[in-house]
Every structure is written in C-alpha cells, then in structure tokens.
Amino acid sequence: MAMSSPLWVAQPFLSRPSSNISRSITYKRCRSSASNFFSQSDMEQPLMKGQKLMEFPHLTVAHKDLMVSLISALETRLDSHLLASSVVPPDVEFYQNDQGTSQGSLHVRRGLPSSHIDFVLASWLHLKVPTGSAMNITNLQAYLKSSTDVPHFQFELVQCSPTYFILFLDITPRKDLVLYPNYLKTFYEEAQLETLRQRLEQVPETKPYLSSSLYFRGVVSPTGILVSIKCEEVGGTDRCEEIIREHVSPIAHDVMVIWLEKYFSGATVGETERAELEKRDLLVKTRAIEMDLSSSLPLQFGQEVANRVLSVIKGVFGV
Fold this sequence. Notes:
Helix content: 40-55%
Largest sheet: 8 strands, antiparallel
Distance between the termini: 19 Å
C-alpha cells in the first residue's frame, strides 16, 4: 500500500479527512529487457501469498494488470532471497474504517539473513469520497540492508480520479551523489535511466508533478519519474488505460529489471560504509512516518486501526 516514503506523492490528498478528499545497460537493451529477464510465467503467475493484496478490487483493468505483473515478477525473481511468508497479521493484511469507505491491504516479506534484502512491501489503499468517486493508491518497493549500497526500488501509482493519475517510479539513492560521483555513474548514468524518463515525457498527457514536500524532492534521484497523467479533455478513461498499459507498464518493468541487475551484481560494503548507510536509511524511514503516516492514517481509518497498522509499519521499518 502507500505506507512509506512514496506516500508523500499523495500528501495533498491524504493529509485531509476522507470527507474532504476531492551492469551498463543500453537503451536498446532496456526496451526488451523485461521480456528477456522475466519468463512469461513470471509475468502472469498469481501469488500464492498475499492473496488479499492481489485482489486489487477497486482498480481499473490496466492498473490491476500492472500491479499484479510487477509484484509477481519481483517476488518470483527474489523468492530465494526472501522469507517464505508475510510478516503482516490478518487484521493488517486487510483493514478498513468503521464505515467501510476507506480500505487498505498490506503485504510484506522480509529478506533472508544471508541476503541483502531488508524487505519487499506491496500495498493498496482505497479512499471513497462523498461524491461517489474514489482515490486508489498502489505501492511496491524493495528496501535493502546496509550490507550493500544498491539503491532502493520504489513504485507508486495514484488514481486521483478516473482520468487523473500520479506516478512515482525511482531507484532512490542511498548516498550523496555530489560526494560520490561514481555512485551516480554506476547506478544512474550507465543504467540509462534518464532515457526511460524521457520516453514517458514524450506522452502528451504526462506532465512533471511537483510534490509539495521539499524533503521528498531531495530524496528522489535525478532520473526519478514523478509525473501526472491527465486525460480529462481528450480520450478520457480509455486513454488513461492505454497510457498505463502501453507506456507506464513497460517502463516500470524496465526500471525494475535495471534495479534487479544492479542488486544481483551488487557487492558487500565494509563496516564503516555500512554504518553510514544504516544511519541514512533510518533517517529516511523515520521521516516518512513522522511526515505522513502518523497524521494521515488516523484521519482516514480512526486511531485504533491506525495504531494497529502503524505498529506493523514501524516494526518493518525498524523505527
């Protein structure tokens, strides 16, 4: 669900009560990387775990297909690096407010002690508004341990209305890119991530989305994709579906492939560097909860449900 730092994308919507919510990779290789890196069964195999999550009951067809394929492919590729089951109790795997108008689902798998994976988190959040429309937030992310300096993977797609979406897609840096230019070169320049960002920019209905959080802007990488998709004037919902299916989905899979290749080729870092990474990661996780979740969850779900969900999130984040 949107239960972590990418939720800052939707902060203008979620900060209000629900009643007011109106190795070096070339470009050519990137274009075919998803089909080469994932088998067809990886892309289509439904998860045996986290079934409530994978229902995605409120999404459009293209949005649901994208989330199911991303989550299934990521968990399949990382399965041997992850513990077998989710750490989320049933009353947090699915939860809702007293009226049933706000609902959420959370699925978390921790990494094995021997792997660099800290956890993989996937979620959805559905918020009903009085006019009858709804806001849907879907999230997928992979956080790594301080034993490696490979960036984290972040994906969030927010449906603000049937014809208005916000997309956040990034591998977020864990080092200062000015102080560590080789980090910038290895994980961003050589990976050709900027080419993928520019591909999506060519879609007429997409425009850069400026988050209201200055802190969030500082966390995103130079090649991070943060755009709005508006099809209100031409094409409507069918055009939004087409954009998600034909543009967002392949680019999201390409970014995930790049991140997976970097992860699998990543080296173990020394103790001094490990301490620095751990400190930075903890600050980012703590800031995410303080800035967003602690205020937005009670507004949407009530304090009792919010406390229950926050307890799980804080335990996963280690804060």
